[in-house]
Amino acid sequence: MRLRILSLLIFSVASVFSLHESDAGVTDWHKPLVGIPLTHSISTSPRFHRIFDHKGTESRVFVATKRNTLASLDPILGTIAWRHVFDEDEHIVHVQAHRELIVSLSGSGTSKLRAHEARTGFLLWETPLHDSFPARLSEPGNTYSDLMFTLDGEDDIIVLSNSRSVRRLDHSNGNVKWEWTPTDQTSLNLHSRIVASRTAIHVIAFAKSFASYTLHVTTIDPLNGKEINTYHIPSSIQNGISHIVIIDRIDNPYIAWAEKGSIKSYDFVTGHITSAKEKNYAEIIDIGLGQQGLFVGIQDNGAAHIFSVGRGQSQGPIKIWEFADSATTPGVSPSIYTGGLDKEGRGYISRVFYSLALQSTNLHLFSPHGAEGKGMVTGFTFPFDTNSHGVIDHVALDVAHPQEYRFISRVVLTTSTGAVQLWQQDSLQWTREESLSEIKAIEFVDLPEKKILHSNVGEAFAQKLQRQVAELQNLPSYIIHFGTRFLTGKYETVSSPSDPNAPVSLYRDTFGFHKLLVLLTSTGKAFGVDTSRGRIVWDRILGISDARGSSLSHPRLLVSKSVWDDSAYPELLVIARDLHKDAIIMNRLDALTGKLIQRSRELQPLTADIYFLPDQNKTILVVDENLKIHIYPNNRATRSAFSDLAPRLHFSLRRGAPSRERIDGFRIDISSLGSHSPTVHRVWSFAPPPSESVQYVVKPPRDPAASFGKALADRSTLYKYLNPHVICVVTKNTDRSHGSVYLIDSVTGATLYQATVSSSRGLQATLIENWLVYTYFSDETNAKGQRIVSVELYEGSTRNEKTSSPDSSSFVYDNVRVTPYQQSFLFPHSVNAVGMTTTKYGISAKDFIVANDKSQIQTFSRRLLDPRRHKNKPSAADAEELLTPYDPVVGDDPRHVLSHSSEVAGIRHIITSPALLESTSLVFAYGLDLFFTRVAPSGTFDVLSVTFNKLQLVLTVLGLAVAILVTRPIVQRQQLRQRWYT
């Protein structure tokens, strides 16, 4: 019992060492994100919405994003008012806001319907419409679903899901009042839209013919869902559902479409089809003003006309305005048309385009009711930075009309780089860089010292002497500052808060906590982020970012020069595949500023992998798809270094089709060293069983090992298996019912450890030194839940048996004589990402870090997950080794939570980096959100406590010195007197 209490006390002390409530927001930062907004459909694109309730009127910007997040943004500050993150496979397909409600349709086959309070985001109810099944994607991007509110005053919800059924649900609780399904389930009609009046609901379907679509309508009674009648609308639509507009006027709904150069509309009340007078229309655009009867028609030459349906005495489509100079013109980007409302619910249409000649973005705003109902256009230009944010993908519009002939517009822009901006007229209010939710490559960059940064590495002696003489003016202030700091003890501490208003400084702090995070996102935009406060220092678009997306794929970041390589300015290599050129390009960047040092250089043929040669110059080795080696830079010195190191070089590649991928190991063909492009030959191959496919490969960090073994109570030793060439291969069964993990020696191809588990959710694994930890959700009927498996590898089959040395070649390892110790633990939450702490010299203990499904980052001591913990009664030897009895459950202790009270959502990766202090590891978690902190697994043993009293120590030393000076003569006189009298 005493041993158990002692062990619990040890774990508690370890937790207290690293986590303090006072550190929240001081030693860490959290950047919440929502993701890049969906802009391909008007049903999910960003929009303004005014909330009218007893609390007053409030505007919000609602967004549905690629990260399956529904969020509300404050249009004044740009902050997140609220957000809800859906499951990873639950894509949002439709969002509709109405008064104080916002309703979303999501999931495979549009299987879930949710209602939230628009102001607070509180989930009112959730209704499953049917089991999940694949959506009927007969047309790309179309899920054949629709969502609307009834117009009979009850505000109930009418939902069409996956073209199969229409339901009416009570808006207050989500209960289904009735359901309608087509009587002929084998029909080829694709039900796609719904439009309602006070007396009927019309379900619009597309009937596919040989060369076009024909409209088919089913009319339903809104009270009981009974089918009233069905009929066809004579039509021939070439472009499908994306080129129809629903005019959902309360008393008289219409549908409009483009057909053979003409714009037509159908009146659901009278049954009449009417055509516009004008011709040569290529398409029509739904701008979200169906209740106002407005849409935009685009002619063959690109000219844009505004149409109204149901206006005045005429019931057909009438052209009410033409945007001047809107036809396609060289030097002018394609225009984006969108609709918006003012506080009174009046509609407006905007045209946004970029002029290359003026180097500015233009907005033209049309008000149909302006100029006493005749309509009028106002406009302005605003300085949108296309070099930093790419091109504009989408525009959401909001308008204020304070005075006659005066209109104030606010627009929310979504750009090709994932930025979300709000402009009020020509003034930028805020920017959100949402591409940070899709990071594809990342590197920690160490910063130089301040004195190095402020000096010029190549300056001559005279220049250096002149600079140092000029700096003498700072000597008095330095002496005063040093004296004050020495006497008061006000030194920088590990928990010193940083000033959020201070400018970002790109130099290293005392403890090495201040670094630069370089991030490369899926949109081709690179960022430099300051680790002290999370602020963006620089950003740059790499490649081309336009409406088609980024031209770069599969990017990699490599630190080619660091401050530890006698270089004052660190440099980065960005290597990626250019989809436009079908080539591999390489850019060299200044890591501190993001400036291009060397512009894009094409590498041919396509690259299979890239490595650094382990020499002082960090020579780049590129392995192409033909298994040939290319050296960059290619000169006599690099070729000589490569020839010297070639016999010891080895690497592994993932090859083969995705479903039958394998891991191949290669060595340099020595006989080809004299050629321009040396070749390699395969020495081993690892292919998982036919029923498995490779998911990912984990390579351990280059973390130094401070100890080569573990001393036991009987004075024997377990020697760690410290093979730096071990890789972890994680596979998945084709039916997604099982997963496997393999430890493989990447030099010999020998399998050191293998485990197969029952899990449909995949495995998360991490590896450092001789310690492997993997976690999975067990699907076993009698033991469902999250498992954490801890595995340690030791040399030999018995204690004191040493079969290899950490600095010897991998070919001398006896791979058969490796003993794994493993133990499984239960964890109360699902795990989304895992990581390990790393320190400068590897002396501090290792902590296991997880991101759980509660949006928390947690850390657990290696001692807690020690696989040698056994179920027997603890002995004195166990107490000496600090081994506690095995407990199958890893407790949910709040002291283990690194993220404190922050909701860190959607984390998918955790990386760490050592600080200059051996005790401290820097931790960065990213996915949807970004979170940075630092931990000290063994406590901050290498720094003084913040409570250390420097002044008291100085006074004590001075007092002792004075006492010595005073007592020394007295003692000397006494000694002299004793000599005289003895």
From TrEMBL:
<dbReference type="InterPro" id="IPR058545">
    <property type="entry name" value="Beta-prop_EMC1_1st"/>
</dbReference>
<keyword id="KW-0256">Endoplasmic reticulum</keyword>
<feature type="transmembrane region" description="Helical">
    <location>
        <begin position="951"/>
        <end position="971"/>
    </location>
</feature>
<dbReference type="GO" id="GO:0034975">
    <property type="term" value="P:protein folding in endoplasmic reticulum"/>
</dbReference>
<comment type="similarity">
    <text>Belongs to the EMC1 family.</text>
</comment>
<dbReference type="Pfam" id="PF07774">
    <property type="entry name" value="EMC1_C"/>
</dbReference>
<keyword id="KW-0732">Signal</keyword>
<keyword id="KW-0812">Transmembrane</keyword>
<dbReference type="InterPro" id="IPR026895">
    <property type="entry name" value="EMC1"/>
</dbReference>
<feature type="signal peptide">
    <location>
        <begin position="1"/>
        <end position="18"/>
    </location>
</feature>
<dbReference type="InterPro" id="IPR015943">
    <property type="entry name" value="WD40/YVTN_repeat-like_dom_sf"/>
</dbReference>
<feature type="domain" description="EMC1 first beta-propeller">
    <location>
        <begin position="19"/>
        <end position="434"/>
    </location>
</feature>
<dbReference type="GO" id="GO:0072546">
    <property type="term" value="C:EMC complex"/>
</dbReference>
<protein>
    <recommendedName>
        <fullName>ER membrane protein complex subunit 1</fullName>
    </recommendedName>
</protein>
<dbReference type="Pfam" id="PF25293">
    <property type="entry name" value="Beta-prop_EMC1_N"/>
</dbReference>
<keyword id="KW-0325">Glycoprotein</keyword>
<keyword id="KW-0472">Membrane</keyword>
<dbReference type="InterPro" id="IPR011047">
    <property type="entry name" value="Quinoprotein_ADH-like_sf"/>
</dbReference>
<feature type="domain" description="ER membrane protein complex subunit 1 C-terminal">
    <location>
        <begin position="769"/>
        <end position="980"/>
    </location>
</feature>
<comment type="subunit">
    <text>Component of the ER membrane protein complex (EMC).</text>
</comment>
<dbReference type="InterPro" id="IPR011678">
    <property type="entry name" value="EMC1_C"/>
</dbReference>
<keyword id="KW-1133">Transmembrane helix</keyword>
